[in-house]
Amino acid sequence: MNLDDIPMSPHDDQAKRDALIGYVFMLLGLFTGIFWIIGAVWAMAKTRDAQGSIFYDHFRNITGIFWWGLGISLIGFILAIFFIGYLLLLGIWIWSIVKLVKGILRLTNDLPYHDAA
Predict the structure, then answer these.
(1) Percent of the chain with pLDDT strictly greater than 70
(2) How far apart are the C-alpha atoms of 115 and 97, rounded to whole Å?
(3) What DSSP designation does 72 have?
């Protein structure tokens, strides 16, 4: 029997939809700003609902990207008077894209963000 043949529970299905919404908002937020906050707040609000789901760690990933991105961006803005600030801002933007795309790919393949092993 293949694991792909086992249907997802309604709880897992809802958690997957909520995580996908969070990821999409975060990706849009890379270009608009406000959706970055909306995606993070959405993920924070839905984390408790996803507890016990195979997709739970996607919510932790989304909120982690938000907090790390916010912190490093603030440091980057402060250091923007020096060239290194711009490098930090570019680096955190690229890091965010990589983490978000990885999350979406794993989510759409019905996998948790982190491997269980």
Answers:
(1) 93
(2) 20
(3) H
